[in-house]
Design a protein that fits this description.
Elements: E1 7-8, H1 14-27, H2 38-42, E2 43-44, E3 47-49, E4 62-64, E5 67-68, H3 70-89
């Protein structure tokens, strides 16, 4: 894995990534549930995002293991969760 200043794989729990993939497969065809994977949106072959895209360089995605920063929470809500959830509620995004 090459060096990247936008992503890292250091400390990634491979069991959590495997569980995310299991859940995504399990609910892929569900008519009553939509599984939204943050892993597939925030991570790639280089690892997971370190910094919030579009913000100053010092705006980190996580504040500690497993917790998004306030800026990252807003980014995830706006770019991942809202597009996945609002169409099901028939609400337009602002």
């Amino acid at each position: 894995m090459g060096k990247s200043d936008t992503h890292t794989a250091i400390g990634l729990d491979q069991d959590l990534i495997a569980a995310d993939r299991v859940l995504a497969r399990r609910y892929a065809l569900s008519s009553s549930l939509r599984y939204v994977s943050l892993e597939t949106s925030l991570c790639d072959a280089r690892g997971c995002l370190v910094r919030v895209p579009g913000l100053p360089y010092d705006q980190l995605m996580a504040v500690d293991y497993g917790h998004l920063s306030p800026e990252a929470s807003r980014y995830v809500g706006r770019t991942i969760l809202a597009p996945a959830i609002l169409p099901m509620l028939k609400i337009t995004q602002r």
